[in-house]
């Protein structure tokens, strides 16, 4: 169809003008996003299952048996999404040997921003003393960190950015119905971050870095995990609603597909994977994914027992922990996967 005759309401397709001078394109495209550093922040206050059982019709035994969760961290009023995200990002930057001047972009994955705008990312940019580049928030619920990795990878591969802070920061305690035992026991608050830098470049070769990311969503399944309101709506701030059994069923099937897709795209097999760093929603889902990959439990990073489900923060928190304690070592292959409201799901393969 000719763009000039596009019907009202339909944007004409964008086309690069013929004869676009190749000299405007970056001469040496960086080939990979390398992981330079990670960091995390967990709220000071720990809430145990027993503490919840004292005011809800639940028990430590039920929660542990169905989910593997023993406790969660819950944010105080001063531990906002911005504050926690900034702490995690500052740690990731320092850990990666970077300074404010090395950051071209900040991508924050969050479903629980403090404000509709300015974006959480821009607030964090300011707190970290970064006075250049750009930042924005990304909403993909519990898959947010994988989505943000995918976007950061694209920015780096296309030469739009050389240093990117990817941050997941969540205050789910704000959107939980604390009377609903079927949801409130599952989640916690926290933030995690990764500092990615361009590596490789034309002529150079490296097998390190983000090998690929694979993102998916299906709006037909939106109602099985949702928040029925929005930030800034005083009449309807929204609480988390979930059909747990349906989410469980889809989680295992979709993440298994995403994992296979990532391995196939790189010509790798299950036996090549050194570590699974999965989204931390439920130990039974994590165990099912580990079994499917044939990975012994010592090769699966688990934080859900202590953090519960921190949504977009869960993978970077787990990654930061396992790198800090020396379990994950340079050169090892890390597979990450997540599923969240939307539904959204995806996977990422990283050689550390
Ligand atoms: N304490 C005690 N009993 C509880 C409870 C709690 N915290 N929450 C629910 N129950 C009860 C239910 O009311 C139900 O009682 P009933 O049989 O009398 O109706 C019973 O436990 C079984 O509920 P059900 O929902 O079938 O349990 P389940 O085995 O499916 O486990 C989940 C529930 C939520 C733990 C599980 O479905 C799950 O983990 N789903 C995935 C959730 C998830 O990962 N979400 C985030 C994705 S990012």
Provide a descriptive summary of the structure in words.
Helix 4 (120-127) links the parallel strand 4 (105-109) and strand 5. The strands form 4 sheets. A 5-stranded mixed beta sheet has the order 1-7-6-4-5, with helices on both faces. Strands 8-13-12-11 form a 4-stranded mixed beta sheet, with helices on both faces. Strands 2-3 form a two-stranded antiparallel sheet. The chain has helices spanning 49-53, 60-67, 81-95, 120-127, 144-157, 181-184, 244-265, 283-293, 304-307, 314-324; strands at residues 32-41, 45-48, 71-74, 105-109, 134-138, 163-171, 189-199, 209-217, 225-227, 240-242, 275-278, 333-340, 344-351. The longest helix is centred in the C-terminal third of the chain and has 22 residues, at 244-265. The protein folds into 2 domains: 10-201, Peroxisomal Thiolase, Chain A, domain 1; 208-351, Thiolase/Chalcone synthase (Peroxisomal Thiolase, Chain A, domain 1), CATH 3.40.47.10. Helix content is 29%, strand content 24%. The protein has 352 residues and is α/β, with parallel strands linked by helices. The radius of gyration is 20 Å and the shape is globular. Helix 3 (81-95) packs across helix 4 and helix 7 runs parallel beside helix 8. Coenzyme A (COA) is lined by residues 58, 62-63, 66-67, 142, 181-182, 185, 242, 244-245, 247-248, 251, 281-282, 309, 339-340.
């Amino acid at each position: 169809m000719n763009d000039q005759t596009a019907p009202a309401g339909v944007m004409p397709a964008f086309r690069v003008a013929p004869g676009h001078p190749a000299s405007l394109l970056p001469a040496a495209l960086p080939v990979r996003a390398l992981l330079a550093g990670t960091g995390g922040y967990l709220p000071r206050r720990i809430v145990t299952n027993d503490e919840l059982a004292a005011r809800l019709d639940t028990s430590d035994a039920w929660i542990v048996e169905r989910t593997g969760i023993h406790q969660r961290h819950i944010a105080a009023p001063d531990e906002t999404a911005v504050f926690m995200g900034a702490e995690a990002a500052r740690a990731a930057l320092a850990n990666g040997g970077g300074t404010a001047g090395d950051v071209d972009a900040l991508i924050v994955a969050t479903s629980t921003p403090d404000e509709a705008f300015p974006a959480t990312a821009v607030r964090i940019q300011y707190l970290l003393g970064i006075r250049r580049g750009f930042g924005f928030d990304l909403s993909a619920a519990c898959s947010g960190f994988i989505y943000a990795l995918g976007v950061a990878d694209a920015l780096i591969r296309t030469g739009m950015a050389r240093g990117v802070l990817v941050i997941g920061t969540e205050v789910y305690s704000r959107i939980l119905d604390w009377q609903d035992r079927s949801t409130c026991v599952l989640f916690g608050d926290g933030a995690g971050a990764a500092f990615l830098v361009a590596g490789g470049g034309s002529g150079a070769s490296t097998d390190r870095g983000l090998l690929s990311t694979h993102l998916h969503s299906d709006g037909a399944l939106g109602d099985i995990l949702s928040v029925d309101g929005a930030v800034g709506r005083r009449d309807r701030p929204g609480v988390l609603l979930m059909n747990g059994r349906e989410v469980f069923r889809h989680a295992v099937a979709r993440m298994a597909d995403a994992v296979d897709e990532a391995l196939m795209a790189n010509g790798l097999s299950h036996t090549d994977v050194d570590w699974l760093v999965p989204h931390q929603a439920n130990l039974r889902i994590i165990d099912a994914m580990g079994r499917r990959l044939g990975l012994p439990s010592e090769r699966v990073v688990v934080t859900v027992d202590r953090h519960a489900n921190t949504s977009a923060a869960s993978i970077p928190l787990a990654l930061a922990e396992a790198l800090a304690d020396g379990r994950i070592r340079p050169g090892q292959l890390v597979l990450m996967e997540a599923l969240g409201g939307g539904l959204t799901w995806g996977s990422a393969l990283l050689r550390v």
